[in-house]
Every structure is written in C-alpha cells, then in structure tokens.
User: Fold Cellulose synthase-like protein E6 isoform X1 from Iris pallida.
Amino acid sequence: MGLGEERSGDAPLFQTTTKKWCRLWYRLYACCGFVGVVLVWCYRATHFPPAAAAGGKGRWAWAGMLGAELWFGLYWLLTHSARWNQTYRSTFKESLLQRFGDRLPGVDIFVCTADPIIEPPTMVINTVLSVLAYDYPPEKLSVYLSDDGGSNLTFYALLEASRFARSWIPFCKKYKVEPRSPHAYFSQSSEPMEGTTTVEWMKIKKKGTGRRLGTGTWYKGLWYLDMTGLDKALASLVADTPPEDSRHSVEDELLLHQQRKLYKEMEERINHTVDIGEISEEIHKTHKGFSQWTSEANSRNHQAIVQILVDGRDESDVDSEGCPLPTLVYMAREKRPQHPHNFKAGAMNALLRVSLEISNGPVILNVDCDMYSNNSKSVQDALCFFMDEDKGHEFAYVQFPQNFNNLTKNDLYAGSLRMINEVDFHGLDGNGGPLYVGSGCFHRRESLCGKKCSPTYKAEPIGGKPQITEVSAYILEERSRGLATCTYEENSQWGKEVGLKYGCPVEDIITGLSIQCRGWKSIYYNPQWKAFLGLAPMTLSQALLQHKRWSEGDFQILLSKYCPFICGHGRIGLGLQMGYSIYCLCAPSSLPTLYYASDLWFIPFAFVIGAKFTCSLIESLWHGETLQGWWNEQKMWFFRRTTSYLFAFIDSVAKLLGINKLAFAITAKVADEEVSKRYEQEIMEFGSSSPMFIILSTIAILNLFCLVGGGTRLLMDGGVTSISSWFLQLLLCWCVVIIDMPIFEALFFRNDSGRLPSSTIFTSALIVVLACLIPML
Ligand SMILES: O=c1ccn([C@@H]2O[C@H](COP(=O)(O)OP(=O)(O)O[C@H]3O[C@H](CO)[C@@H](O)[C@H](O)[C@H]3O)[C@@H](O)[C@H]2O)c(=O)[nH]1
Ligand SMILES: [Mn+2]
Assistant:
C-alpha cells in the first residue's frame, strides 16, 4: 500500500497547541514558589535551636520539621515540573471521514462490571447502550461486557438491552440524540409543555456549556431557550458542543414519547427481576444463553460463559430501520476459588483474547460500567490521533478525562479530579503522554498486547477493511470459552509482558507506564463537550477508600521494578517520571503531613502556605469551581493525607513484608435513599465506624484541645517567650479546627444515621487524653 499516495497534500488530523500566556504565568509562579521553598529550607537550616534550649528537646522537633519541609518542597518541585509543558489537542473529524471513509478500522469496546448489587444492571446497560449508539459504522463496532459477578441478572439486562438497541440506535441517529445513554437522555429532556409546538425547546446544558442566546422559559426546574433562527445559527457555530436534537414535527415528538415508554418498561422489567433476585421460568425460556448457568454456579465459582447476543455479521439481524447492528457479546470468565482472578486486569485480558477471536478490532476502548459515553463522536476523535499519517504510528493510547455527573454543587468529597483533568494531565501530555487511568481510554491493540515501539519499528496502519471470519457464531462462542478459562494464562506472559499487568491495585497506571517504557507515546484529549461521565463516590468512607486503593497502588509501583525513575530511566522523559512520582509519593506523604498537623512546636511559613492556597484558589475558580467547592477540596486533601494515604502506606509496607494480600475494594455506585439525600444536601456521610474516622476525629479533638489550652495560656501567661511563634501555632490549630468542622458536627451535633458512631468518639477521646498525658510523665 503506497503510504505516499495517502499522504499527498493531506492535512494533519489533529492539532497541538499551547496556551502561551497561561504557560508563562504558570512558570513564573512555579519559579517564585520554588524560591520561597528554598528560603524556608534556608531558614530552617540556619535557625537551628541551640543545644542548650529546652534540654535539646527542641532540636529533634526542629529536625523533624526540616525533614517535613524538605519533603513538601520536593513535592512542590515534582508537581510543577510535571505541569511545566501544558499542551492542548484538537481534532479534525471531517478530514478523517473524508479521507478514510469505508477504510475505517474496527473498534472493540470493553465494558467491565463486577457485582450486580453495587453496580446495578440498569446502570451497566445504559453504559452499553451509550457505546452501541456511537456515531460510527455499526458493522465496525463490537461491544463486550465482562461480568466478573458472573450474574444471570446482568446477562438478562444485557439481553433486554440488545432488544431495545434495535429501536434506540436508529432513534439516536435520526434525531442526533445526545447523550446516548437512555437514562441520562430521558432524565435531562423533559417532555415539552402541551400546546407549545411553535416554540423550540433547548435545555441549557450543565454549567460550562450554557450560553445566553436569548429569552426562555422555566419549566420543571429547567431553563429552556426560545430559539430564533439567528440563535440557531450562532449555536451551530460554536464548535465542540452537542448538537440540538433535530426533532421538528408532532410525529417526532410521538416517537420520542414511544422510546421513553419502551425504555421505562424495560427498566421496570429489569429492576423487577433484580429485586426478585432470580430469573423466572418464562424469561429463562426466551434465550438459550441462560442454560449456561448451572445450579451450583456462583460469582466465585463457575465455568466460562460467552454469549454473542448480536452477531454484527448476520445480515438478517438488523435494527428497526434495516441497518446493521454492532456486535454485542456477554462474557463471564471462568472463576475458581483456588485461582487468583486478578480483578479488573484479569477481566480485561480475557476480553483481549475473546475479542481477538470474534472481531479483532485494532483499536480498543475501555470503559467502566458506570461511565457512559456522553459524546457520540468520541470514537472519531480518538481515531484522528491513531490515524494521523505523520505522527499516529507512535501513539499507544488516547486517554479522555474521567468526568462525573453525580457531583454536588460544591463537590462535597472533592471527587471531580478537576485539577488532575484540567492541569496535571495537560502537563503530562506535553511531557510524553498522560497516564492510563482505566476508564475512557482508547488503546491500540498491538501496544496493549506487548509490542514495542522503536525508531525501526513502525506500528501497522490500522485502517483498512477488517477481515471478517466466516466461522459461525456458535463455534466462535465455543472457542472463546476456551480462551476465558482460569488455566489459560498458566505459564504464559499474560499479566506480565502481555495485556494488563497483575498484582497491583492500580492495574491501569502500571500498565500505562510499562507501555510508555516500551517506547510508545500517549495522548490526552479533553474536549469541552465531555466524552464520558461516571459516578464519583457518595460517602466519605467510599471516597477515602478509593483514594486509599489508588495511593496504595501508586506507592507499590514506586517500590516495584516499575518505579518510574528506574524503569523509566532513559525510556521516558524526566518530566514524565516526575509526573508519575506525584501520584506514587502520595502514600508516604501522609507521614510529614501528620507530623506537621500534630506537632505542637510548629511555625508555619505564611508566605509559602499562603501563596499555595491563594494560587490553588485562583486556579479552582478559574476552572469553574465554587468557593465552597474549593474549600471542600482543601478539606478532603487534608482528610485523605491523614487517612487514605496513611493506610495505603501501612498496607503497602505490610504487603512488602508478605503480611497482606492484594485486594480490590469496588466502589459502590448506589447509596440508600437517606444517604443520597444527605449527599445532595452536601452533608458529610460517616455512619460506619472505621479506623480512618478514628484518626480524623483524634486529630480534630487534639487540635481543639490545643486551641483552647494554648489560647488560655496565651491570655493568662503574658510572659511566653515568643508571642509570635505561639500565635502562629494557634493559627495552625485554628485552621485544622476549621477544616474539621464537619467532624465536630458529626461528633457532637448530629443525630441522623450518618453521624460518627459513639465508639469512635470514645476511642479518639482516649487517644487524645493519653497523648496529653505522655509529655507530663
Ligand atoms: O474484580 C473486579 C473488580 C472491579 N472490576 C471493574 O473495575 C471497574 C473499576 O472499579 P471501581 O470500583 O469503580 O473503581 P474506581 O476507583 O472507581 O476506578 C478507577 O480506578 C481503578 C483502579 O484502581 C481503575 O481500574 C478504574 O478503571 C478507574 O476508573 C468497575 O467497572 C468494576 O466493575 C472488575 O471488572 N473486576
Ligand atoms: Mn468507578
């Protein structure tokens, strides 16, 4: 194939830009900050207390402080080096379609789910439907659902979805529906008021994309615009926003109504079956697939199940408009108690093999079951990078940011990952490419399967007609089951050099790192019109636990042979090594933070701390955060530092010593009604007793004691040697106390079920008393 002829005069498929002024400003700020850090170090080093003072006791505290400050200073350096080269990307989808037309590659989409209780099947199929309806030739799309729960309820839901898809996909395409998760779509677009056919309705999208285009009406709590011709023209000019539904006539409205009804009915049937907890006789008869569940099968012990629900090659199996459908496959890999299953990484690797057998798409998209596609053009966006004739061959993956649609107004648990998405990853992109963060990532199959990229090796162009096997669906299923067994990977490179890596709670990060160390680059693409929306944790313990898993995994990478500085040395740039280490060093950061927050002989450095907070405040507001939201972020930062990261640190050390085994605590995607209500009201959820909460409340009480005790002493005893250091000390206590306000509330003032249990109060009070007694002995 003549590469030359394809290229002749063709413009690139994507563009890379930098925001010059932002960059300059950032660099200036980073440099000033670093000067401040160095000054603090100098002060600490030169003002060492004399040995005589307080019997030398003060010297240890001072040295500890110096250590903590050295650590924070280095962290500052790492963070800002990683952000040094912020880079932005944009794509030219029209050129892609023009140039490649019917030579577009096959794309295999992997959705992972693990538990029908905490990941409800209706949520899972909404994600599946959203990706089935991508704006991409259906004969080139294949969607695979991996069910680690091995649940026939999830299978049933998928079966229902495969039927619903037949009308949903043509409906989406006809009216340019966005987003294509039916649940998300129907909950955003209310039906227009009766008798208002002349007015066109358009909902202002959530914060960020809302533009004032004219007058409008409030209806059911939503603001609808009256669109004039000019408005519409304007709206279509603003690129990178979802198009308006193109519904015009009464018939169109009827069709919408019909779809909504179909969806609601399906949802009800699924929820009903899930509530009962088993598949009824009647349903069982409707599909041969159910027979694969034997009576003794359970989630931890069952054979491999593979079922092709829609065979895209089957010309008689088409949607309601007669167009081909994407292939849809259900897979539950074999599980046996005596075989480690390696969590999501294991599931992904089984999917890699099964999909190779069935559709063999050269591009793979991975989404978690709670992350639906919010933008039907994302596949095209991703392909713009892979198929760019000039640079495309060096990209292993295209990572989209993880955005969430269940955040409260002020982001109570700081789950938005805003700074990572809007700042850090743009910086990493300029340093060789972002991390792979699990969900919302397009991979080149080749690179995920262990291929190296070098100046002499060029990735194969991924375009061209996919080769379609002639083998029957039945045989494909048979073969696939053989690929999804427990024993298949024995004595192989799977989980090591091939596929996702095993043995790390953040399989995604370590896999991405090893891909980059094999010479590949990656791309961060963060379009205005969000590509994926998922669910962030909705209780404090879930939020802390998730960060514990992440920081533990990242720390383990640092301690393993994949340490970015060792494995990455000479393979990835220093900037990227530093970028990885920001995350890898979270867990050990807990120690200096704890030291700082609990030390009584503390002198804060107003300049650096003040500058850091002011800057982060400006940054947050700049990126659309509220003031309260910023404050919540600071709070959660402190909570995470003193709990999640500490536990992660301890667990990692324990694992290193062989005391602990690897585990993966799946984040719950549902909360009971009371809990969700409190979440919406932004009231922190404690509820259970957890060792993490004991630490939080101990620090809170300790600082309250110090504030009260220190304050009285300052008033009573005017002769304190250095008023200013006392004052600063109290200021810090006061800050911690303010940050801990929700904890005091939960300790003393609340009586709902989300308060802190009294056992936690007693334990922490006991610890505080002991801590206060020790110095008196
Ligand atoms: O044994 C398992 C455990 C989990 N999962 C799936 O893995 C995904 C992520 O699990 P979740 O509990 O939602 O973790 P999060 O912390 O929200 O996920 C982030 O962090 C993980 C690594 O810690 C990555 O795997 C994810 O892609 C990334 O979104 C979900 O779809 C699960 O169904 C499995 O398939 N099998
Ligand atoms: Mn998740």
In short: Residues 20-46 form the longest helix (27 residues).
